[in-house]
Amino acid sequence: xxxxxxxxxxxxxxxxxxxxxxxxxxxxxxxxxxxxxxxxxxxxxxxxxxxxxxxxxxxxxxxxxxxxxxxxxxxxxxxxxxxxxxxxxxxxxxxxxxxxxxxxxxxxxxxxxxxxxxxxxxxxxxxxxxxxxxxxxxxxxxxxxxxxxxxxxxxxxxxxxxxxxxxxxxxxxxxxxxxxxxxxxxxxxxxxxxxxxxxxxxxxxxxxxxxxxxxxxxxxxxxxxxxxxxxxxxxxxxxxxxxxxxxxxxxxxxxxxxxxxxxxxxxxxxxxxxxxxxxxxxxxxxxxxxxxxxxxxxxxxxxxxxxxxxxxxxx
Length: 315
Ligand SMILES: C[S@@+](CC[C@H](N)C(=O)[O-])C[C@H]1O[C@@H](n2cnc3c(N)ncnc32)[C@H](O)[C@@H]1O
Description:
Elements: H1 19-25, E1 33-36, H2 43-51, E2 57-62, H3 65-75, E3 81-85, H4 91-94, E4 100-106, H5 111-115, H6 141-147, H7 150-161, H8 166-177, H9 185-195, H10 207-217, H11 220-234, E5 235-245, H12 248-261, E6 282-284, E7 289-290, H13 293-298, E8 306-312
Parallel strand pairs: 1-2, 1-4, 2-3, 4-5
Antiparallel strand pairs: 5-8, 6-8, 7-8
Helix pairs in contact: 7-8, 7-10, 8-9, 11-12
The structure holds S-adenosylmethionine (SAM).
């Protein structure tokens, strides 16, 4: 019933990062119910499905229409699997309270999203400056750059790209749009490269700016903040939450969320009767996990991956 998604039909392949570690951390039971909140091209989902028996269930979520197309092929009318095209911040609508044995988030963009010039994510391939994971919703990067003021652009680039030349870059972008829209990835990359003094070896000067715009356009950090509490709510007691992040801004949110969820509310520390709402809801499982050298050699995207796991305690 499971198979390899025909990646060539849907914008190329995505090598799932930390696949075995993530699947082991979900501690899959053959009759369990699992949510893959970032279906992508189904690399992790296919592995989960392969470990489920006839009674098992899998819900795949992704906001990208091309992920939906890949899911239609991978799930191929498999009665155990269901795909929902949605933002994962809507997870609670698709996975009811205490219904899931495990939920996986493999954050960020998929390789096909980055590699396809027409999706407008990459400074390496010229294409329309879009960057939306869901091209049917919200403003594209080109629209943002056309309308935002210089301060707002600089704020996004410094906060989400940790780019020290953010003000200079924002000034150059605003000056450039006077003479025509910044509507291609090539044009944006060129303006940023010309505005940034000096060069960091091995890194394109527009890397941080592209990262910042992508995170902003997709509200990536807000999505994680809103989704994590819903994921805990959707887990059954002893259910597992597994999150793979790809940069420090994401990982910081995940780490803080899991840490604070695994501690008793300090206001009640030392008191004999702690109300349920102040008790920890999570238990941390192991430490942060990173890809090993062999995986990084095979898949350079894995270099920045960090996986964190928590288990839901009783309600
Ligand atoms: C790193 S890829 C996941 C790859 C997948 N694990 C695989 O093995 O093929 C991340 C996916 O999550 C999706 N995504 C990111 N943020 C999302 C959000 N807030 N809501 C729904 N999908 C999201 C992206 O569209 C992308 O397809």
